[in-house]
Amino acid sequence: MDALRHIVVDGLRCSGVYETEPVGPVAQPEFLNACATGAVLLEPAELLEQVKLIERQLGREPGGERFGPRAIDIDILLYGDRSVETHLLSIPHPRLHQRGFVLVPLAELAGDWRHPALDQTIGELAGKISPEGVVRTRARIDRPGVGAASDLRRGGRGVAGAQ
To answer: Which of 4, 73, 131, 150 has the most CB atoms around it within 10 Å of its CB?
Structure first.
């Protein structure tokens, strides 16, 4: 949370923390997932730079095996109602609507927000997936040792997820 406070200028809110099975072919422990929202004064590319810096500060090693174990993984899920497509960044996150570990905590914070490409609310998208295996824990995102994430929007609101 402290790392996010440096880039969020207003309205930082965090979901509960959810334990889920890892996604991908590499055997590893379960993940802790959460989402955060708030306003930033950064454009998407600048936000991505800050997110990558936070990941490194929290122990993420650059490179590594795709879908392999990592200290933290912060994804920018939404950026208000904007869509962004570059070689480094896709917003909205291209698999957001398929992943219970993202949609369940995201709906907790922003169930009424509309996915800009699918024209459905986050709550509607969450209602279409199985929440099986997405278990709310007693952990809190503002406690040390729990990863945090943020997707934010210039002068507005946004959402991001972390593992």
So the answer is: 150
